[in-house]
Amino acid sequence: MRDTRRVFLSHTSELRRYPDGRSFVDAAEAAVLRAEHVPVDMRYFTARDGKPADYCRARVRDSDVYVGIIGFRYGSPVRDLPDLSYTELEFEEATEAGLERLVFLLAEDEDVGLPPREILDVHADRQEAFRRRLRESGITVHKVRDPQQLEVGLLQALLGHRNSPVAPARGPSAVPAPPPLTLDPPAWERLGELLRGVRPALWCEDAYRSSFGVAEGRAAAPFVTPAGDLYDWALDLDAREHSGPPKVLAFAHALATGFSTGAGPDGRRRAFALSTWVREVRERLGLPEPPPVREINTHQVTMLVRLDQDPQEPGQVFAEVWLRPSLDPSDWKRVQPPETATERIRVSLEGARRLVERCVRSFRDEARGFRGQGADGGPPSELRRIEFAVTDTLLETEFDQWLCDVSVYKAWRLGQRYEVVVRCPHARDLADFAHLWTLRWGWLGRNDGTDDKATVWVGNEDLDRLDDHVTDWEESEHPVCVAVAADDAEPVWRAALHVGMPVVVWQRASSRRDPKLPRLKTLLPVADVAELPREVKRLRRNRNVPASARSSVVLLWDDPDQALETAPLTDAGFFPA
C-alpha cells in the first residue's frame, strides 16, 4: 500500500501565478498528486478568529512533509509577527516540529519565467538572508529553473517516502499477500544506480510503450514519453500506474532487451545488470515474470539531406541524400544520386522536396543493405531523424513543414513524423570550428544536459554586446547551446556558428514579425540540451499550439557522433579515383 501523506506547500503568491501557462505551485501540486499524497496549501484555508501566526503553525504541524518553494520575494509579513514573513515562519515551524523538509530554490542566475515586478521586493535583503539561511541549514536544497524541473525533483523526493511491501502472514491458514504495486526502497536505490544519468536512445520509446502490454499486436502506451533520463522515465511510469504488477519491472526488462541488441559492449553490460536486477526483485517481492518484449527496434537510421545552393543560380541546389545507421555510424550509404551516378542532381527546392519524398518512400529497401540489419529476419530499420545539411542561406527554410505524400491516408509534414534538424557544414571552415565543437560536446558529455552553463539565452539587450559574448564563448568549453530570444536572430546564430556552437535554436524571421505568436521562451523552455531534438518534435506535433507557432522553431543540431564531410559537391565526387 502507498503511505498517503499531507504535504505542506510553502510559497509566496506570485509562484502560483507564474510562469504563464503552468506555475511553480501547479507543478508542485501535480508532483504531490502523482505520488498519491495530499497537497496542503494556505490558499485553501478561510480566515478564522485568533492570531494568524498560530493558525499557520497549526496547519504546518498537521502535515507530514514540508516543501518550501522559495523565489525572490520575501512575502507578506505575519500580522502579529511583522519581522517574519509567512514563508519563513512556516519553515521555522516545520523545523521545530521535526517534519521532513524539502526545499527548492528558484535559480537566481537565469530566467525562471517571472516578470521583473515579481522579482523586485522592498524586503529583498530579508529574502536573500532567508535563502542563505536555507542553503546553510544542513538540509538538501535543490535549485530549479522551471516548473518541470520542480515537478520531477519533488516527485523523486516524495517517492522515496513509500513504505516497503508488507510481508505475508505465516502459518498453514495464511492467505498469500497480493503482489505489491510498487517496488521497495532497495530496488529503487539499485535501479537508480543503473539508470540515473542514462539518456534515452530513440529506441527507448519502444521499451516504454511495451511496458504497458500489447494491444492488437502493437505496443500501446496511454501517455507520451516523459522528459529526463531513464530513471526519470521509471519514476514517471511508476507514478502513473494503479493496478497490477509494477510496470517498472516490465520497463527494465524491455530496456535490457534493447541494450543487449544494439548498444555495443557497454550496452550489453548494462543489459546484464538490468536482467539481474529484474530477477532479484522478482524473487524478493514474489512478482510474476514480465510480459514478452515486442517492438524494441534498435535498428534506427538517420537520413541526411545535403543541399548546396548553386552560386550561379540561387533558385537551384545541388542535392545528395545519405543514410546512416545508429548501430554503425561509419556505415554511410548514398542513396541519391545512386552510387553509380556520374552526374550531380541539380534541382529547385520543390524538386529537393520531391527527392526526399521518394527517398522516404524507398527507405526500407535502401536501409536493408546495412550490415546486420534486416538480413536475419529481425525488425526492419526505422527512420527517426532527418538532418538537412545546408548552406547558411537555407538555414531558415521550413524543411520541417515539407509535405510527404507516401501514405494511402493523407500527406504529413516531415516535422510531425520525424525529428527534423538542420546543420551547416560550411561553418566548419570558420575560425577553429572543429576544435571548439569537439570541446563543447566533450564538456556536455561530462556534465548534465540540464547544467546551468549548458545553455545561454541571448535577447535584444545582448545584441549591442554580441562581440563580448563571442569572446567569452571562444575562451570556454560552454555553453553548448545558444537559444535566441532576440527579435533579430540572424546575427546571433551566425556568431554562434563562428565559435563552434553545436546547438542553436531560434524562431524564423517570418514568425518573429507576428506579434500574436508566442515567443521562443514560452514555446520551448530548453531545459535539457540533449533532449532538444525530441522536444522540438513534440512541439511540432502539439495541437494545443497554433500551427504557425509550431512551424516557427529552427533547431540547428550538429550531431556529436557524426562528422560531416565539408568538401563542396563537385563533379569529381562522381568519378572513381
Structure description:
- The chain is an alpha/beta fold and about 575 residues long.
- It is built from 21 helices and 21 strands.
- Helix 17 links the parallel strand 19 and strand 20.
- The C terminus is likely disordered.
Highlighted features:
single chain; about 575 residues; alpha/beta; 6-stranded mixed sheet; 5-stranded parallel sheet; 21 helices; globular; disordered C terminus
Q: TL;DR?
A:
With 577 residues, this protein is an alpha/beta fold.
Shape: globular
Helix content: 25-40%
Assembly of the depicted chains: single chain
Low-confidence stretches: 44-50, 161-180, 214-222, 372-377, 564-577
Q: What class, by secondary structure content?
A: alpha/beta
Average pLDDT metric = 79
Write the layout of secondary structure elements.
Layout: E1 6-10, H1 14-17, H2 24-34, E2 38-40, H3 52-61, E3 65-70, E4 77-78, E5 81-85, H4 86-97, E6 100-106, H5 124-135, E7 141-144, H6 147-159, H7 185-195, H8 204-210, E8 214-215, E9 218-219, H9 230-240, H10 247-262, H11 264-285, E10 300-309, E11 317-325, E12 333-336, E13 345-347, H12 349-361, H13 363-367, E14 382-390, E15 403-404, E16 412-413, H14 414-417, E17 419-423, H15 433-446, E18 455-458, H16 466-474, E19 481-484, H17 490-498, E20 503-507, H18 509-512, H19 520-523, H20 532-541, H21 547-550, E21 553-557
Parallel strand pairs: 1-2, 1-3, 3-6, 6-7, 10-14, 14-17, 18-19, 19-20
Antiparallel strand pairs: 4-5, 8-9, 10-11, 11-12, 11-13, 15-16, 20-21
Helix pairs in contact: 2-6, 3-4, 6-9, 7-11, 8-10, 9-10, 10-11, 16-17
